[in-house]
From TrEMBL:
InterPro entries: Knr4/Smi1-like_dom (IPR018958), Knr4/Smi1-like_sf (IPR037883), KNR4/SMI1_regulator (IPR051873). It holds the Pfam family SMI1_KNR4. This is Knr4/Smi1-like domain-containing protein. It comes from the Bacteria. PANTHER family: CELL WALL ASSEMBLY REGULATOR SMI1. Residues 211-342 form the Knr4/Smi1-like domain. The lineage of its organism: Bacteria, Pseudomonadati, Bacteroidota, Flavobacteriia, Flavobacteriales.
Amino acid sequence: MKNSGITTSYFLEYNNNLKKIQWNDIAFFPLESYALSGKQLLEKPGNAEVLQFRDNLIQVFSMQVEQKIERLFLVTPKEISGEYYGFLFLQNKQILPIKVIGSPLFYKWMEVILRDDYEDRDMQSLLQFTSNEYSIISIGGPIKINNRIFNETGKYLFDNAPKKYNEVKLAKEKANYIAKYYQPEGDVDTTAIKTAFDQMMKQFNPAFAPPADNEEIYDEFEKTAGFAFPKALKELLKLHDGIEDIPFLIAEDILDEWLKWKTIYDDWTLEELKKSSDPDKKVLGLYVTPYWVPFFDLEDGNFMAMDFAPDKNGTPGQIIAFGANNEKGEWIADNLAAFLNTFKVNYDYLDDEDYDN
């Protein structure tokens, strides 16, 4: 740490020993809040202004410790003008306990932020700030709500550290979990797919673009995903490169949407991804997996996809619906040909404005 005023004795190392540390074992380093700006924001403070204060406070503390702050915990006193203690989760995976030297502007902002929490002055709060997070949790008081920050301090800090502190372990945990369910694509009935597609086209009679050469996209998908671009979708894309008024994705869009959802999967922990299980045990009770390959746009961030990590009663290559409006995937059909054969029924159902799982 470059700041000569902060000795190494103040820092808490993020390791298993952290779990044993109690509140009374900790030395809190004093950090000033006098450099806070934004007095004009207090004139009509709303959510946007509070978020600007959060960003400013993190910046002020970051400048003093000369390191990026990944997360800030701030424990409030029972009185607005009392002593505020906190913990800075730093980029180097160290935790710096702090005692805030309050300024008039700091106390004024605390009054704004905590006004709804201070009807009971025997209750304290834990503020949690990151670059994209802001929350208030009640602690202390006679009910002892979420009192772990006081009586299990080190363990609480360990359990609530930024995901970046534990990203290797968390990624491994997800990989081990999903590997048990991945099943490679089996044989594909190309005739059944073409027959079902032709019947669908006769029914709707839309204009469509002729098929394109997608080999480069297929190769890019395989290099990134670690498994082959689905053969069934390749067969479908041999028949078109976009259909008017029917939102089948073309190869480029399949790759693009898959990458977007893979980013969400990578960013979330397994615990965050887990949702209620499918009673039929066909689709994993997850928000998304990298083995769901979207191929049809249901709009508003929702898609139909081929699933290659089914639950124990599912089949590899089954068709599911998933997306922003769904907590978890929903089974639609056993395979692509079956989906195309019942396309109108499935599409009308999924296009219903009340569809929300």
